[in-house]
């Protein structure tokens, strides 16, 4: 965010409404699930920064390894050399990734991971002599990044409707949000509808023109949308039948957020062709992202007749040794009880938040693992958000901040994804603040 000094405030750049009440001062420290601002106010970090501080703040092990790696080898060029932490990390990630997703390309974050995946898709199709197989299917409500093409995939028009040239390459399917399914339609029929919509798009566009389908297993920034049962396996099967690459965007859902290192297989039973990741891979202690790639796709890239070498694509900070060293230590922490804790605590987290559904303003509390969303509605009968004052998320956030909790406001929703270290009493504290804040908002 661009920080704008305003009197004594540090105000986040106002990105058209989804930033909540201004923080009263810059954040200066963190500890566990808490952050403290320059005025000494301590707040629960409800969104774990931006879905990323999975291991919590002030982890000495992570800070130490960052320092140690900087002293040992602070940088090497990924174009000419490899570094030991990245080699070890690749092996460990491949062990966790489903199927034959045995290859990793490191990036600097989520957007660059998504761009990289799409460059792989285009390049592999060029090599196979089918350069027109480049349309990308994404979904309303999805979020995939802030760079030119990744932003074009996003489900929010404001992210891309002013830059049409990239958007011409993208087709968007309906948002798989069971809460917003047509009235009277069962979840099963809704799922059939979503799959049929994809099949129709393939038929109309021609599978020879569609290169990839990209999906977050659980839509994060769109409001923690958990697709209907069976949706992801059926979409995956359609991709396989039509030679369309399935890219699982696990920038949020990986590294423990849903209780596993990767969620695609372990939570949803699917093996994608590529998985993009970032954020929780280093718990936010160093910028790093990447793409897991199937062996089949890797061979396509290797067979390149465009050059003798591999596909020419790289970022200065790809496989940064400090990022990879931090990621290795972060994996140790996850393996050393944090994944187990995340899985064990998620039931209490979800059940406690669910109690807020008795408040008239709350239409639905939904979530999975340690990500959750409170969606507010104008009235509980129609569940209609449209007549609602759409600053409601911001207003809840404002009250929460007064009481010591950061949430992520999204128009009529508030999203939470706390550090995975959260305890039952901290969950109680969070839910109690939310209850008071929502009550104050609806009064
Ligand atoms: N994909 C998803 C699912 C995301 O949530 C985000 C960021 N919120 C991105 C991609 C982009 O990641 P970054 O901001 O690190 O570029």
From TrEMBL:
The record's section on Pfam families has:
Aminotran_3
Which CDD domains does the UniProt record give? OAT_like (cd00610)
List keywords of the entry alphabetically: Aminotransferase, Pyridoxal phosphate, Transferase
A GO term for molecular function: adenosylmethionine-8-amino-7-oxononanoate transaminase activity
**Keyword Transferase recorded:** yes
Q: Which GO terms describe its biological process?
A: biotin biosynthetic process; gamma-aminobutyric acid metabolic process
Chain ranges passing through the membrane:
none
Q: Does the keyword Transferase apply?
A: yes
- What cofactor does this protein call for? pyridoxal 5'-phosphate
Gene3D superfamilies reported for this sequence? Aspartate Aminotransferase, domain 1, Type I PLP-dependent aspartate aminotransferase-like (Major domain)
Q: Which NCBIfam families match?
A: PRK07036.1 (NF005447)
- Cite the PANTHER family for this sequence: ADENOSYLMETHIONINE-8-AMINO-7-OXONONANOATE AMINOTRANSFERASE (PTHR42684)
Q: Which family does it belong to?
A: Belongs to the class-III pyridoxal-phosphate-dependent aminotransferase family.
Q: Which protein are we looking at?
A: Aminotransferase
Which species is listed as the source?
Pararhizobium antarcticum
